[in-house]
Design brief:
By secondary structure, this protein is an alpha/beta fold. It is built from ten helices and 16 strands. It has two domains: about 5-115, translation initiation factor eif-2b, domain 1 (Four Helix Bundle (Hemerythrin (Met), subunit A)); about 120-310, Rossmann fold (3-Layer(aba) Sandwich). It has helices at about 35-40, 50-65, 70-75, 85-95, 100-125, 150-160, 175-190, 200-205, 230-240, 270-275, and strands at about 5-10, 10-15, 25-30, 130-135, 165-170, 190-195, 210-215, 220, 225-230, 245-250, 255, 275, 280, 295, 305, 310. Strand 1 and strand 2 (about 10-15) form a beta hairpin. The protein binds 5-S-methyl-1-O-phosphono-5-thio-D-ribulose.
């Protein structure tokens, strides 16, 4: 299953601290909704499915200890605004009786892995033998209940065809690609090369990318995709070079309450993430604009890969 990011041990939620990977492996313990929301907001755990599962455990812990359901929902829901998985997970648990909450959270966790593996098979079938893939952000076991969405497609493809190669985009400013995806792929023994985000055009112009694989934080009803900032830039580039962009999309990430991508709230994060990293500052104290996500219009996407096969927005021409 690859690395574990989320586990329930001795009555508490434990999260691998993704802020300090790959050089340190430490675990953070959460025992209530507030601690869990802090861990989500501070990026101890990140990735849309992973934060949904984490919120489910945090909600269960709080309510089982006698905490107020509405307050638990509110604090967890407010932790990060873009991924719909937070809302989805909390709504799934809203009517579950208190003594069944923990089992429901555990089931959600296990089901996410099964969903990812099904998606992996459907996505891998779209790729040519010996595929050269470009991957953005981290969408692997760390970002989900296990296995991964876009990276799960890579894992399924590599299991059938070890000649698959992955260009790992470093994913400025938070470096999820460099720190997390490269580490996951190394552990899996999947052939990969880390590149600065700005190398993507050079690779595509040279014909060295067969497909771009990304995940998503929320997909609007019309197929517009909110995902890690930089996805839009890659999709525009891929259109220019006729490279398909595939989105790994669990059906729970489709938000039919958002008609288009313009309705998706985009999180802005702290300036320190752009000025430097983990206390090392390379920029002056200059104003910073740091949106964590962007929206890629449906017309730039070649396929939305779900656990049920390909999904198409209404009216979208199937490629
Ligand atoms: O800010 P992050 O690291 O939580 O952003 C993660 C992404 O954008 C992922 O691509 C997305 O959540 C899908 S993870 C399967």
């Amino acid at each position: 299953m690859g690395v574990d990011a989320i586990r329930f041990v001795d009555g508490a939620l434990e999260l691998i601290d993704q802020r300090v990977l790959p050089h340190e492996e430490t675990w953070i313990r959460c025992t209530n909704a507030t601690e869990t929301a802090d861990a989500i907001r501070d990026m101890v755990v990140r990735g849309a499915p992973a934060i949904g599962i984490t919120a489910a455990y945090g909600y269960a812990l709080e309510v089982m200890a006698g905490g107020d359901r509405a307050a638990a929902h509110e604090v967890l829901y407010a932790a990060r605004p873009t991924a719909v998985n937070l809302r989805w997970a909390l709504e799934e648990l809203a009517e579950v009786p208190t003594d069944a909450l923990l089992d429901a959270a555990k089931r959600m966790h296990a089901e996410d892995i099964a969903i990812n593996q099904a998606m992996g098979g459907h996505g891998a079938a779209l790729l040519p033998k010996g595929a050269q893939l470009y991957h953005h952000c981290n969408t692997g076991a760390l970002a989900t209940g296990g296995w991964g969405t876009a990276l799960g497609i890579v894992r399924s493809a590599a299991a059938a065809d070890p000649s698959v190669h992955v260009w790992v985009g470093e994913t400025r400013p938070y470096l999820q690609g460099a720190r997390l995806t490269a580490w996951e792929l190394l552990q899996e023994g999947i052939d990969c090369t880390l590149v600065a985000d700005s190398v993507a055009a050079t690779l595509m112009a040279a014909g060295k990318v067969d497909a771009v694989l990304v995940g998503c934080d929320r997909v609007a009803a019309n197929g517009d995709v909110a995902n890690k900032v930089g996805t839009l830039m890659l999709a525009v580039l891929a259109k220019r070079y006729d490279v398909p962009v595939y989105v790994g999309m669990p059906m729970s990430t489709l938000d039919t309450r958002c008609p288009t991508g313009a309705d998706i709230p985009i999180e802005e994060r702290d300036a320190s993430e752009v000025r430097g990293h983990r206390g090392v500052e390379w920029a002056a104290d200059v104003p910073v604009y740091n949106p964590a996500f962007d929206v890629t219009p449906a017309e730039l996407i070649a396929g939305w890969v779900t656990e049920n096969g390909l999904w198409w927005p209404p009216g979208h021409a199937r490629s």
